[in-house]
Every structure is written in C-alpha cells, then in structure tokens.
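hey so i finally got around to running the thing on that chain from the lab meeting. sorry it took forever, my laptop kept dying and i had to restart like 3 times. anyway pasting the input first so we r on the same page abt which one it is
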Amino acid sequence: MGVLHTTNGLRDLRYAADALVILAGIPGAGKTTLLRRLYPVGADHGGVRVFDSERLRARWMPLLGRLPYAWWRPLLHLMYYVRVLAAIRPAGGPLVVHDCATRPWVRRLLGWRARRAGLPLHLILLDVPGDVARSGQWARGRVVRSGSMATHCQRWPDLVARAIEDPAYVVPGAASALVLSRGQADQIARISFG
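ok and heres what got predicted. didnt touch it at all, straight out
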C-alpha cells in the first residue's frame, strides 16, 4: 500500500522495493514536471527506472523534429509502450510510469503485465481541472488537439472517483490510489522504494 509520510515538512511517498507506480493525469496536469523535479534526466535514481514519453520525444527531436509531430506521434507512443511493457517483468521494479490513464486498453495492458510479472502496482493521480491543464500545455509549448483533450477531460472525473473507491477499477491489480492536486504534488519531496 502506498503511504504518504510527512517528515520535517517534507513529503515522502514510499512503496515496496519492486513496485510499479503509475503517475496519471490528463495532458498538462504536471506529470512530466513532477518527474523532472524528482528524477532529473542524467541523475542516478538509485535503481528507480522512470518512463516518460516526453523523455523519449526529446531524444527523437534531433532526428524527427523537422517533421510535424502529428506524423511521428503514433510511432513515438508505440515505442514508448513497447519499452514500458518490456520493463515490467519479474524483479523489474521499482518503476515509475507516466501515463494519462484515460485510455482503457492501456490501463488493462499495464495491469495485466504487472500481474504477470508479480509486481505490486500503485497509482498517483494528479487531479487538475481541464483549464489549468490546458494552460500547462501552452506553457510547455505542446498543445493536445482540442477533440483529444475533451475526451481526456470527459473521462477523468469518473476515473478519479472510481480510483478512490477501488484502485483496481482504474488499473486492474492496483493496490492503492493517491489523488493529489497540483499544489499537493508540488510538496512531494521524493518517491522512495523499499
């Protein structure tokens, strides 16, 4: 079970040493911002493997950046999920995975893979209003198409409500769900395992 501990004003989320933690939220909620702060690119994370599609996108930009992003976005997402699924294996934790969680097939696939690997699975949901998330998208310079964003925003409130009642409804096999506002997420000092 994921537990929120407070020590000397710092917040520490602690999970089992082999846990898979899915950091979820609609596009622009602040998932990448939180991961960059807690797990800077190039730093040693003590064995924690962090998966964020934005990191993969940054690696591909020098090669594919001249093309419109819409042309290579499907390939990026495919490669991202292939890497995530390959990492979810017995003794493969700890893992932190960035995902919007609004796509049912992705949630089922992640849950199925974690269950087969025997990894405990936990959710952290960044609950941010759609207009705030849209502002976050403009700030990062990458805006989700309005139809796609509407779908994310439409599905999100039900996911949050159901996660509070039963985390396994959102992702099969999830043992816990922690719902955070952006302000609460800003107070998290670390996600530790073990």
